[in-house]
Each structure stands twice: as structure tokens, then as C-alpha cells.
Amino acid sequence: SSPARLAAALGATDASARRLPGTLPRPPRLRLPWLRLLRRAALSLPPAWAGLAAFALLLSTVAFVETEGSLAREVDALLARGEVRAAQRRVEAAARARPGDPLVEKLRGDVACTRGAAAECLRRYRVALASRPALREDRALRLNARRLVGPTEPCATRRAAASLLGELRDPEALPALERARAAGGLFAFLCTGDALDRAIDATQLAARR
User: Fold this and answer.
1) Residue 112 pLDDT more than 50?
2) Measuring CA to CA, which residue among 115, 99, 5 is closest to residue 54?
């Protein structure tokens, strides 16, 4: 073995991890700083250690991907059973263990939406999307954004949810957006400004492409 062959093997390991199935959309590349550090360190190892280094890298990367999927499934199951406090404790523990993780932030948004904290929910969704745009395909995030644009929500919530939906450009959100605009009547602009119109235009444009 040689350093060049070891680097190629580690690259293949990284690619294999990205192909693992998950419950949530994944970004084009796992952003794991320790993965790059481990790869660089492996280049300085004696050839006899090359296979062990590649195997250790595979195990650690697979464990990370499975942990993300397991966390999301666990929190989703708790929320589905109405165990909101248990779900909140779980995501807060994950947030302490993995600060800044966009998936954890998205799950914190799910919990906030479920317990009726709309402003926190939308804020956490935006933070998560800024770090991992692929989360725009997340089903719970999209459903909550559609619900928060409903006419029973406060004007500020509806305006913020419409703005988020306009960025998501989810064709399935069009009926909810159009119902929200119709429910506002002549005074809709006083409540949501042009957020609903802009969201509808952006979504329709995306649907035609």
C-alpha cells in the first residue's frame, strides 16, 4: 500500500457512507471536519496500518449517518404519540451533544410547532435550512409551514410562514397559500402584506419549470 492508494480507499469509504439510506434528505457531502483530519492523519501511517485506518473510518462514518436517522425516527415517533415533552427532552439532549447540527435544529423546530410555539418553530427551521438547504425537502417542515399560513394563525405567523413557503417553492403548498389569501379578503394586505402573493408567484413559477 502507499499513501496515494490509502487516500483513494478513504475517499471510497466516504462515498459509501453517503449512499446509505436515511429517512431525511442528505446534503451532497457529509460535512465532518474530523473525517478530513482522520484522512490526513492516515496518510502518515505505515503501510501496514492502512487497512485498519480505512476500516475505522468506515465504522465511524456509518455510525454518524445511522445516528442521525435514528434520532429523527425517535423524535417523529414521540410526536406522533403525543409525547411532546419526551420529544423535547430528546432533542435538547441531542443539541447539547451536537451543537449547531442542522438536523437537530430542524427537529427542535418540529417540537416547537407541535407545542404551539410558531415563532420559535419558524426561526429554527430557517437556521436549519441556512446550514443544510437539503432539509427543504423534509416532510414535517413543509407540513408545518403550510399549517402556519392558515387563517386562524396570527398575522405575524402567517406572514413568516408565507415567506418560508415562498422560499421552499413546494407545489403542494399552493392550495394552502391560495386558501390563506382568499380567507383574508379585502384586508389581507393589512395582515400579511404581499408575502402570500409573492409565495404563490414563486411556487407557481417553480411548478411550471
Assistant:
1) yes
2) 5
